[in-house]
Amino acid sequence: MTEFPAQDMKIEVDDKQLGLVLRAMRVAANKTQSELARGMCISRDSIANMETGRGLVSLTTLVRAGEICEFEVKLVVSRKKEVAA
């Protein structure tokens, strides 16, 4: 099995898009920003900032919010095209 070379990895994340995912999970779970913030032990302002793209959304934060909102958050890594051996 070939190892995935770390030096080839480049991850670009749009915090605004992740914030929208965070908001969508929260709204679908019928939770307020305050309720989600309490469950995550952070401030309501932090949730508001993340949802609007003004705050950074880590993968850990997204997974924790998913747990509270009863969503499973997964990270999928795959190559876009066939790589010659």
Task: Describe the overall structure.
The chain has a domain at 13-68: lambda repressor-like DNA-binding domains (434 Repressor (Amino-terminal Domain), Orthogonal Bundle), CATH 1.10.260.40. The chain is mainly alpha-helical and 85 residues long. The radius of gyration is 16 Å and the shape is elongated. The N and C termini lie close together (12 Å). The chain contains 4 helices and no strands. The model has no long low-confidence stretch (mean pLDDT 85).
The biggest sheet amounts to: none
Given helix and strand content, the structural type is mainly alpha
Fraction of residues in β-strands: under 5%
CATH class of the domain at 13-68: Mainly Alpha
- Helical amount: 40-55%
What is the approximate shape? elongated
CATH architecture of the domain at 13-68: Orthogonal Bundle
Mean pLDDT: 85
CATH superfamily of the domain at 13-68: lambda repressor-like DNA-binding domains
| Beta strand count | 0
